[in-house]
Design a protein that fits this description.
Arc Repressor Mutant, subunit A; 77% helix; disordered N terminus
Length: 194
Amino acid sequence: MTAVGLAVARRRNAEATRQDILDAARCRFACEGYDRAGLREIAADAGVDAALISRYFGGKEELFAAVLAATANAAELFHGTREDFAARMAHMMVREPQADTKLDSILIMLRSASSPRAAEASRRLGDSRFFEPMAQWIGGADAEVVARLLGALMMGMGVSRAINPDFSLGEAELDQLEGRLRGMILHTLSAGRP
């Protein structure tokens, strides 16, 4: 193998190792929260030496922030009409199979809320990557209030789904739940608008 080939292989290995650590940490933080998740356990889950976490991320706080940054990309949520947004969100929260992974950031933040270090990182990231873009997309004088209300609604649905993935409802009832949630989101987005 040439020197260039070795460098590319090492870079791919480094990228894969970093991603393995992020994936393992996301699972631990989502299941255990910030305080209970240990770096040694995260490293073991990723199949690496714990020293690599320091090498790639610095420490637990930086790893936590990196996990949140990797799981919470709200920019892709805010496009289209309000009706489209309401339908997409309701479907994701009630029906989408991959929503559990998308909702990991909510679980991570909730399970880590009692830790002052984690709560601060969650607040900063939530503001910059979710609430601020949402308020900007919503627009208007009450956009920040509406964004917070929608965030609370989504968080509540995320927690409910984490506890009970099918909400203990049949297919027809899930259709009703999705429809009512879509209406609630649309009503919240439209409140106070002409």
